[in-house]
Design a protein that fits this description.
The complex is a heterodimer. Chain A is α/β, with parallel strands linked by helices. Chain A is built from nine helices and 17 strands. A six-stranded mixed beta sheet of chain A has the order 5-6-7-3-8-9, sandwiched between helices. Chain A has a five-stranded mixed beta sheet with strand order 11-17-16-13-14. A three-stranded antiparallel beta sheet of chain A has the order 2-1-4, covered by helices on one side. Chain B contains twelve helices and one strand; from the N terminus they run E-H-H-H-H-H-H-H-H-H-H-H-H. Classes of the chains: A alpha/beta, B mainly alpha. At the A-B interface, strand 1, helix 1, helix 2, strand 4 and helix 3 of A face strand 1, helix 1, helix 5 and helix 12 of B.
């Protein structure tokens, strides 16, 4: 960030979509009901948004589906006209709303690349000059003369990304591009992001992936319901985002009178035992479960387990599983189970399930709730795997003839 | 990047527009889209360009047989076959260009919804792509003229003065149709009827002299008629009335000329008005 000038300035940006109740698609309807006022459902998607992005900044925009982040990006890109407020951008802007936009399947890669690049604002001559670089970047040199319809979707994505990178705009708007492409290409995208960041490009990235935001963004912004909820430090924004995601489901109470035993409360809590659904990595994770028995239960067993998003059971704890005897439960007894687990989980979304069994081998299942509640883990290093265990990492190097530090 | 680079000027983003600020980009895009469209239409098939020539030629063949051997419209008209061919080529340009433009914006939905570019590029590129075809067809027409033995005249050089208003009307209509179609889907069938009517309303397979004298001047007020009348005067038969004569003097000539300008102006105004909402209406 060498020159500290503003790259994007947004002031009081508002956008309302008006969807007609009756979509008048024919002139006949219009002629038959000339006096009928067109009725609209108004939906305010963006409400007085204000923010600045400095030149050379990597700026993340996060939000749940329907929060208005894509609309914001489309307003920035000049695809939607704002109803109120102003947007100013310094320099040339390349939107990257969807990969391969404007690609015509019947044209060759060459024609498509030139067309796409001109759309991004460079001249046809420049586009033709950079064609070889683009194909090299996309690793598609052998398929230059192939029609786009014969490209795999991954190849199209690579091509589109290559065009965007080579279009060399001052400000890049990127929407969820990394959801596509194979691992090798994603790695390449990351490398490009680092490089663009180094070169002082201004980048606005809209994404769901909090790891990306934490990894790349200098600043981030969380929007919800068309308003800015939080703006600033990516970690803080990331935490707010996860909390936002989980707002509506803090605890789940199951109410089924016919059951032998019922779950009354189930929630996760942080180190200070405050109920929370976003638990920082590294600290303790607490799970509280409250049961109420309608009948006396001999030799009961209670188990809690945690599943990750891929339905892999990461760990489980419980009275029977750990060999800890619970003793019989009396009729009408209220039991609270509290489990504390070292939070070694990598960041992401997890689910808590619980079960109550009867009999010494746990064969008689009285209550079974899979994925009863969910919680989020944030923070920690980027680790690929289920858990990040305490570890020690050392590198010893030796080369012939020299000692490397 | 050095610390001394001057920051780029701040520019306000006002949302989509018909024209957009950068003229060079506008022309580049229009040309590229038109050219690739053209390539797609005719290079996909084995016979390629020949097909685009075959269509007016075959139509010409049918009309020729009907109007010289069955209905005998052509009797007494100088060089009727070449006149018929030229008229068909000129009119089918108009018909194809406007017909293709109707759904043009809708067909490029993915582009319109995800890219920022001057929206007017789409209908203009559609017209331009058909115009490329017209240029090639006209070469065939002139070859035909020479083979048929029409006298070479210096007024042939004035052909662009006929083509320009034709392009203008086609573009104006294309702008109107493509933007209306986004909102009203029945524009397509309505326009196909109108363009059929225009075929009979303009002197294509008949000539001005066959039109009853009392309505002749009104008839020539149709800009398409005026264009065809003038083309006949300049290219094929200098003794045939010019558009100005046909309409009854220079003052009256302002009517077809004014209509052409009005269609273009309305098309531009309307498209410009609709452009910001097109992405949302689709």
């Amino acid at each position: 960030m060498l020159d500290a000038h503003t790259a994007i300035e947004v002031r009081g940006l508002s956008k309302t979509f008006r969807t007609p109740r009756h979509h008048v698609h024919t002139l006949k309807e219009r002629a038959l009901h000339p006096l009928r006022k067109r009725q609209y459902d108004e939906r305010t998607v963006l409400d007085a948004i204000e923010f600045d992005v400095m030149a050379g900044e990597f700026f993340g925009i996060v939000g749940r589906n329907g929060s208005g982040k894509s609309t914001l990006l489309k307003c920035l890109a000049g695809i939607y006209r704002a109803d109120g407020g102003t947007i100013s951008v310094a320099g040339r802007l390349a939107p990257f709303i969807e990969l391969g936009v404007g690609f015509n399947p019947d044209l060759t890669a060459h024609d498509n690349v030139v067309l796409n690049a001109v759309m991004m604002g460079i001249s046809p001559k420049q586009a033709r000059d950079r064609f070889d670089e683009i194909m090299a970047f996309a690793e598609l040199e052998e398929f230059v003369d192939l029609k786009l319809k014969n490209y795999s979707s991954g190849m199209q994505v690579r091509l589109a990304f290559a065009v965007m990178v080579q279009a060399d705009a001052d400000v890049l708007l990127i929407d969820e591009v990394l959801a596509v492409g194979d691992a090798a290409f994603q790695q390449k995208c990351f490398d490009v992001f680092y490089e663009l960041r180094e070169r002082g490009k201004t980048i606005v990235l809209v994404t769901h992936a909090m790891e990306l935001v934490r990894q790349f963004c200098h600043r981030a912004m969380l929007i919800s319901g068309g308003e800015i909820v939080s703006i600033g430090d990516p970690d803080e924004v990331g935490r707010r985002y996860l909390a936002e995601n989980f707002k509506d489901r803090t605890a789940q109470v199951v109410d089924d009178d016919s059951a032998v035993i019922q779950l009354r409360e189930l929630y996760t809590a942080d180190a200070e035992d405050r109920p929370s659904n976003t638990i920082p990595h590294g600290g303790p994770l607490r799970i509280h479960a409250v049961f109420e028995a309608a009948e006396a239960i001999e030799a009961p067993g209670i188990a809690l387990w945690i599943e990750n998003e891929e339905r892999v059971r990461v760990t489980s704890v419980g009275a029977l599983e750990n060999g800890a005897a619970l003793g019989p439960i009396a009729k009408g007894e209220r039991i609270e189970v509290i489990a504390e687990i070292a939070n070694a989980f990598t960041s992401g979304r997890y689910f808590v399930g619980c079960s109550v069994t009867r009999g010494s081998i746990g064969a008689d299942l009285l209550l079974y709730l899979d994925r009863a509640i969910e919680f989020y883990v944030f923070g920690g290093e980027a680790v690929h795997g289920l858990v990040s265990l305490g570890h020690w990492f050392e590198v010893k190097r030796e080369r012939t003839g020299e000692v490397v530090g | 990047m050095s610390a001394t680079t001057t920051p780029p000027r701040m520019r306000e983003i006002r949302g989509p527009s018909a024209l957009g600020g950068d003229w060079r980009r506008f022309f580049n895009l229009t040309w590229l889209i038109a050219y690739t469209d053209y390539k797609l239409t005719y290079f996909g098939s084995v016979l390629g360009y020949l097909w685009s020539l075959m269509r007016p030629l075959m139509f010409f063949g049918v009309l020729y047989v009907v109007f010289t051997h069955i209905v005998k419209f052509g009797d007494g008209v100088k060089d009727y076959p070449v006149l018929l061919l030229m008229n068909i080529v000129l009119f089918s340009f108009f018909q194809e260009a406007t017909g293709a433009s109707v759904a043009s914006v809708l067909q490029r939905e993915s582009l319109v919804r995800k890219m920022h570019f001057p929206r007017l590029v789409i209908p203009l590129a559609t017209v331009l792509s058909v115009a490329l075809n017209l240029a090639l067809n006209l070469i065939a027409v002139f070859a035909f003229l020479l083979i048929y033995g029409v006298d070479v005249q210096w007024t042939w050089l004035l052909l662009p003065l006929v083509l320009l208003p034709l392009l203008a009307i086609a573009s104006g209509v294309a702008m109107i149709l493509s933007s209306l179609y986004v909102r009203y889907r029945d524009v397509a069938p309505i326009w196909s009827v109108i363009s059929q009517a225009l075929f009979y309303g303009a002197p294509i397979f008949y000539v001005l002299e066959t039109v009853p004298e009392n309505v002749r001047e009104w008839f020539a007020c149709n800009p398409l008629s005026a264009i065809l009348i003038q083309a006949r005067h300049w290219i094929i038969d200098p003794s045939a009335p010019s558009a100005v004569d046909a309409v009854g003097g220079w003052v009256h000539f302002l009517i077809p000329a004014g209509l052409t300008v009005a269609i273009c102006a309305f098309g531009l105004w309307n498209f410009n008005r609709m452009a910001p909402q097109i992405a949302e209406e689709l």
